[in-house]
Design brief:
homodimer; alpha/beta; Arc Repressor Mutant, subunit A; Rossmann fold; two-stranded antiparallel sheet; 8 helices; 9 strands; about 40% helix; globular; disordered C terminus; DNA-binding transcription factor activity (chains A, B); CoA-bd (chains A, B)
Chain lengths: ~230, ~230
């Protein structure tokens, strides 16, 4: 599995979401052209994206919804438990903690952290909010895979460093800030600090969505521009 | 401006965010390799993405931060006012309304809508929450460009239809649901209902971010896979 564009992974996630919607509508079969139409891409693209990970359908027969769904769940690693901490428990952090669907997969919130004394000690979704300073100690005694970052932008870099120091494997960053791994003073520009090696950062940026929307409202003809991978 | 991949637009948004961070750090010059390193892409990719929209730098001299920033703001359409309504004013809608940075650009919240009687009539950020049934009447008397959708997933399609009926130009969908345009009964599969023509839908899906993060934690070697556009 080399050279899979990140956009293909995003589309895989979209296909999975569509399959889940088909399942709730009791639709048990689909095809690359049906998936393509619902996802707003070409059927060629769907077949190509799926082909990175195996052969899921029968030629000319399409796909069985629950089977393709189960395979995509497996490919994406959603058939295993992910222990998550949320750093930042203001409106946004609480909205994330209560976002429907995370518990449909095995995302489990195991800790909530904030620096605001008004929040530390409060109960949110059955968890006691702890001070962010306790994060490292917490991960020493509890398995934590991911950290969701929902702090104000000016605190995002420091909070990300706290998560890196605490040894999480991935950060989902909701702050409109590009998180930078710490680099070693003596190292070259590529030499990043140990705690950042192999740490994955994904971003969910509301502002980025607003900006993309503004651009495409002004340039609607570009919206469904075929990607270079797509000969259609 | 044809055939610009959507991923290039997302990267443009990232470059702009980086330029803003450089500006707050009083850094006035940058280069494609500097931008590339901060964005986690190749310098070739940066130059290619920018070249879709014009020539912004001087060969061998790099870019002036405030000038490139201003140009990207213009390209993305962020130098004009965007009037926004939010549909769904629960925790998530309120987090969106209070998300820092939207007001740095000219995104202006002009209306908040919900169906919950406990919320209708309440004040949020200086606006009175109205019932979603009033949306169409509201847009008849007020200029509304975009609708942000922050309702529970089971209500997202109906709320999106209400926004389409109200004549917004774009929807930013925060619900983990793929919004489908209404199709005409008598039409072919491609024939969509008038109110959806030219309407742009962008998605911000927390669950999609969680799933991508899970995938890349399990497949870290794929994280920075060069895109097919990138010969590096």
């Amino acid at each position: 599995m080399a050279e899979i564009p990140t956009a293909a992974i995003s589309r895989l996630v979209t296909y999975l979401r569509i399959l889940e919607q088909l399942e709730t509508q009791d639709i048990s079969r689909t095809s690359s052209s049906d998936l393509a139409e619902r996802a707003g891409v070409s059927a060629f693209q769907v077949r190509k994206d799926l082909a990175y990970f195996g052969r899921f359908g029968t030629r000319g027969m399409g796909y069985t919804v629950p089977i393709l769904k189960r395979e995509l769940v497996r490919v994406l690693g959603l058939n295993q438990t992910w222990n998550v901490v949320i750093v930042g428990v203001g409106r946004l952090g609480q909205a994330i903690a209560n976002y429907p669907g995370a518990s449909d997969y095995q995302f489990q919130y195991v800790g909530l952290f904030d620096v605001n004394p008004a929040l530390v000690g409060q109960q949110v979704r059955g968890l006691t909010v702890r001070h962010t300073d306790e994060l490292r100690d917490f991960t020493r005694h509890n398995t934590v895979d991911m950290g969701f970052l929902a702090v104000p932008p000016e605190h995002a870099q420091d909070a990300a460093q706290a998560l890196a120091d605490a040894g999480v494997k991935g950060i989902l960053n909701f702050a409109p800030v590009v998180i930078q791994p710490r680099t070693l003073e003596r190292g070259g520009p590529q030499e990043i600090s140990d705690e950042w090696r192999g740490l994955i950062v994904e971003n969910i940026d509301f502002l980025a969505g607003m900006k993309r929307l503004a651009f495409y409202i002004l340039n609607p003809h570009l919206k469904d521009a075929p990607t270079p991978e797509d000969p259609a």
